[in-house]
Design a protein that fits this description.
Blueprint lengths: L22 E5 L4 E6 L2 H8 L8 H11 L14 E5 L12 E5 L4 E6 L4 E6 L2 E9 L4 E3 H7 L4 E4 L2 E8 L2 E6 L12 E4 L13 E5 L7 H15 L6 E4 L4 H13 L4 H5 L8 E6 L11 E5 L7 H9 L32 H9 L3 E6 L2 E5 L9 H24 L7 H20 L14 E3 L9 H6 L5 E9 L2 E9 L4
Parallel strand pairs: 1-3, 1-14, 14-15, 15-16, 16-17
Antiparallel strand pairs: 2-3, 4-11, 4-13, 5-8, 6-7, 6-12, 9-10, 10-11, 17-18, 19-20, 20-21
Length: 489
């Protein structure tokens, strides 16, 4: 029975936690499950000298990451991050593909007389044929297998050389590396016209080769496996590896993490990443986006972690990463990371290669230039990524909080508020520039009308695209950013 008096009390929702960088540190001194850490002591319990996977470099990175309170201009500090441990990555040589045919280890049902021809087709393809002639009466399948040692055939332009061992014929690709698969089929014939097939209970398998893998590629492969199988909920990546091969491959990994429009349309999820690394190579160069590298003479000072700890706390507020003064990891001093010993020519090379470094000009020390490896400013990349994430979050909120969104002008307008709100919030964060006179964000959003939709779109409940354009405010420099919101209702 319904009650006559019903009282509903609603309270305002508590303010959400302040948004911060989702940082992942990768240790490569031994496998250890990913965990969330907030202080040096908990990190030392795992990665310290007495921990299960000692890694002095990771401990130094954490100390440096957290020890920026004396020099950062932010009003807070990094206070949470993840660490995962991987086995030490190693390089591997290329491995050749193999096609293996194993005959029964016994007598043939129909023996072959001397000087009898026999033909084998590979992969079910009668244009890829191995032939041989018996030199004596042949009664066992191992004798047949022996006839085909030292033969060659081609599959998709790649040569395979055969060798026999008992009843096993192994065809190995002449060139190591991955190859096109060969169907696991072999047919044996008594004539070149393939009309008389010899009955045999043989088996076949194709084992693909593998390309050579560098240490850096092995590390990236481990990270991708971790993403797919364990945890992909992180954004900014740092590792304990500073060698060129690893830094180059990690930068390439970050660049490739941003899906293209075609990939998004095909259902690929957007889990873009950003990589921060360090190098002691004065001529380090790799033209990749979504990664920043800082040069240092003192790799043990962990300049990359210092840089992130010093500027990262501003996130998602957009600030330039230039003119910042990262502190070293020694908690008993306020000293900056060591000023590198660079000649003018070496400084010019670093600038040309878009590698950041601590400099001193007129007795003022700061990081120069605050850029990614392709020359784009770090704050511009982080800001663009934030817009994509925020716009997507707001859209899902609209879709989940409304029982139905009509396929009409009003429904399109409701969906469009996700774009407008995200860009407005980005303006408040300094990511999007403001008009000097109106002080409003410089962005345009074109919300489509129902009349602009096609019959196919209506049938599939797909809105016409919502194009938008904004001017990103990268400190004193400005660049345009464009995007499209595509929604299925």
């Amino acid at each position: 029975m319904a009650k006559d008096v019903i009282v509903v009390v609603q309270r305002d929702a508590l303010p959400s936690n302040k948004e911060s960088l989702d940082i992942l540190l990768v240790s490569t001194t031994g496998a250890y499950p990913v965990g969330t850490y907030r202080d040096v002591e908990s990190v030392e319990a795992v990665f310290g000298d007495d921990g299960p996977t000692p890694n002095a470099k990771i401990v130094r990175k954490v100390k440096t990451l957290l020890n920026q309170g004396k020099t950062t201009l932010a009003d807070t500090l990094i206070n949470k991050f993840k660490i995962v441990g991987f086995a030490t990555p190693s390089s591997a040589a290329a491995v050749a593909a193999k096609f293996i045919c194993t005959f029964p280890d016994g007598d043939m049902e129909y023996p072959l007389e001397k000087d009898t021809g026999i033909w084998i087709t590979v992969g079910g393809n009668k244009e890829v044929v191995l032939s041989a002639t018996t030199t004596a009466k042949t009664t066992k399948w191992r004798q047949v297998a022996a006839l085909f040692g030292g033969k060659t055939f081609e599959w998709n332009g790649l040569t395979y050389n055969t060798a026999t061992d008992g009843v096993v014929i192994t065809a190995t690709a002449a060139e190591a590396g991955k190859a096109d698969s060969i169907p696991a089929v072999v047919d044996v014939y008594a004539d070149a016209e393939f009309t008389q097939e010899w009955p045999s209970e043989h088996t076949c398998e194709f084992i693909n080769g593998s390309d050579a893998v560098t240490t850096g590629e092995a590390l990236v492969n481990a990270i991708k496996t971790f993403q797919a199988d364990v945890d992909n909920d992180w954004y900014l990546l740092m590792t304990d590896r500073d060698d060129d091969d690893c830094v180059i491959n990690l930068a390439k990994f970050a660049e490739e993490s941003e899906p293209t429009e075609a990939e998004l349309g095909a259902g690929v999820e957007d889990h873009r990443k950003f990589y921060m690394g360090q190098t002691a190579n004065k001529e380090f160069a790799t033209l990749t986006a979504r990664a920043a590298v800082i040069y240092t003479d003192q790799l043990k000072e962990e300049a990359d972690a210092s840089y992130v700890g010093n500027v990262g706390p501003f996130y998602p507020l957009s600030v330039t990463w230039k003119f910042k003064r990262p502190q070293n990891g020694n908690a008993t001093t306020t000293a900056l990371i060591t000023l590198p010993d660079l000649k003018e020519r070496e400084r010019d090379v670093l600038i040309e290669n878009h590698v950041n470094f601590l400099t001193e000009e007129y007795k003022r020390q700061y990081v120069k230039e605050g850029v990614c490896l392709n020359g784009e400013f770090i704050d511009v990349v982080l800001g663009g990524d934030w817009i994509a994430k925020r716009m997507r979050d707001l859209l899902y909120d609209i879709l989940l909080e409304n029982p139905n969104i009509d396929y009409d002008d009003a429904g399109f307008g409701l969906v469009g508020t996700a774009v407008v709100q995200a860009l407005a919030e980005a303006t408040d964060l300094g990511i999007i520039a403001r008009d000097n006179e109106s002080k409003s964000g410089i962005f345009e959003v074109s919300i489509p009308k129902y009349s602009e939709s096609t019959e196919e779109q209506r049938a599939n409940r797909v809105m016409p695209d919502i194009p938008w354009e904004a001017r990103l405010a990268g400190s004193i420099h400005q660049v345009k950013s464009k995007g499209v919101l595509r929604v299925s209702l």
